[in-house]
Amino acid sequence: MDYIKRIRALREDNDYTQREVAALLNVGQRTYADYEYGKTRIPLESMIKLAKFYNVDMNYICGVSDVKVHFPNKKGK
C-alpha cells in the first residue's frame, strides 16, 4: 500500500472528512483531495503532520511498513 492509499485509509478509519484534515494541514479541501488521488505530491512537512496527528510513524504512513508504531517522541519532552 502506498502513501496515497494509506492517508485516505487513516482518514476514513478515524472518521475525518477531507475538509477537516485539509484544515489541519492549512490547505484547501480540493488540494487535500488531490493528495489522496495522487494528482499532487504531498509535502514532507504535511506527511509529518499527518503522522503526528494519527500517531503513527513515517514508515507506516508512507506504506513502507504495515505495522502501526506510535509516532516517536523526542526524549525529555
UniProtKB/TrEMBL annotation:
Q: Does the keyword Isomerase apply?
A: no
Q: Keyword Magnesium on this protein?
A: no
Question: Which UniProt keyword terms apply here?
Answer: DNA-binding
Listed Pfam families: HTH_3
The GO terms this record gives for MF are: DNA binding
| HTH cro/C1-type domain residues | 7-61
- What SUPFAM superfamilies does the record tag this protein with? lambda repressor-like DNA-binding domains
**What InterPro entries does its record include?**
Cro/C1-type_HTH, Lambda_DNA-bd_dom_sf
Q: Which SMART domains match?
A: HTH_XRE
PANTHER family hit by this protein: HTH-TYPE TRANSCRIPTIONAL REGULATOR XRE, TRACRIPTIONAL REGULATORY PROTEIN-RELATED-RELATED
Query: What name has this protein been given in UniProt?
Result: HTH cro/C1-type domain-containing protein
Q: Which organism is it from?
A: Enterococcus haemoperoxidus ATCC BAA-382
